[in-house]
Design brief:
It is a single chain. Helix content is 65%, strand content 5%. The C terminus is likely disordered. Among the domains are: 106 residues, no CATH class; 49 residues. The longest helix has 20 residues. It is built from 12 helices and 5 strands. The chain is mainly alpha-helical.
Length: 265
């Protein structure tokens, strides 16, 4: 346990913030942007961001306390949910539905058009609301209810993200009741997509794969040989009839190892 002292004004004390000359509208946008950047860019976020755990330094920096509850989202899930959020921002419900199916979150046998219509029923009423009532946290909650009906399993890390988002939005609105959540989120999500899903991301992924292959590539032939030897020692009746089965299995194992190491390292 490490303790330190940080001077600042409590984020829940609007009168003190005004007296110190802070712009509460800017602070509200900054709190929300910081949370989204941490969740999307870093995959690691403070999951208890209520006013009691936040202060504002004299220079306007946000100071967070009490890191007892933290959330983690892996890179693949971050990319998927960035596309989903961006699809809602663009009101492209067909794309939101397609992303769920492409990611395997919803069974592939579900009708994508029917799914898109169900998602539209969630998104459209929110866009018709006043900016002060729009909530990304509530949107995710409604989305989870719809996807559950279409066969998506509950993901605990995303439930924590949704609940934290509701709290963060509450903090932002306590600072600026008229804050527009979509306007603040749009550049953050768009920037993440450009860096993590677009052409730049493809080039980065290829570089990572090349580095991994340079490190583990020499070991793949030996691993494949072990698999082939094991297959030869204990062949099944099917493999006796299909001599290429062991080779195919070996190649598959090599590819699988590459994919696994890409995510692990």
């Amino acid at each position: 346990m490490t303790l330190d002292w940080a001077d600042g004004v409590a984020l829940g004390d609007n009168a003190a913030l005004d007296a110190a000359g802070h712009d509460r509208r800017v602070l509200g946008e900054r709190v929300l942007s910081l949370f989204l950047r941490h969740a999307l860019r870093d995959g690691y976020f403070h999951a208890d961001m209520h006013q009691g755990n936040l202060k504002v330094a004299a220079n306007g920096d946000i100071i967070a306390f009490d890191f007892g509850i933290m959330g983690h989202i892996d890179e693949y899930t971050r990319r998927v949910y960035a596309e989903i959020l961006f699809g809602f921002i663009k009101r492209d419900y067909k794309r939101v539905a397609e992303v769920h199916l492409e990611a395997g979150y919803v069974p592939a046998d579900r009708d994508v058009d029917e799914f898109a219509r169900a998602i539209r029923a969630v998104g459209e009423p929110i866009f018709g609301m006043d900016a002060s009532h729009i909530s990304m946290g509530n949107l995710l909650n409604y989305l989870f209810e719809v996807t559950e009906r279409f066969g998506m399993e509950t993901r605990t890390e995303l439930i924590l993200l949704q609940r934290t988002m509701v709290v963060v939005e509450g903090v932002a609105r306590s600072l600026d009741p008229k804050i527009n959540i979509w306007e603040v989120a749009h550049p953050v999500v768009e920037d993440y997509i450009k860096k993590s899903i677009g052409p730049r991301a493809i080039a980065s992924d290829l570089m990572k794969t090349a580095k991994i292959m340079s490190r583990f590539g020499p070991r793949l032939p030996a691993l494949m040989e072990k698999i082939l030897i094991a297959q030869a020692q204990e062949p099944t009746s099917d493999q006796k009839r299909q001599p290429w089965a062991g080779i195919a299995l070996g190649l598959s194992a090599g590819i699988l190892l590459t994919l696994l190491t890409t995510h692990l390292f």
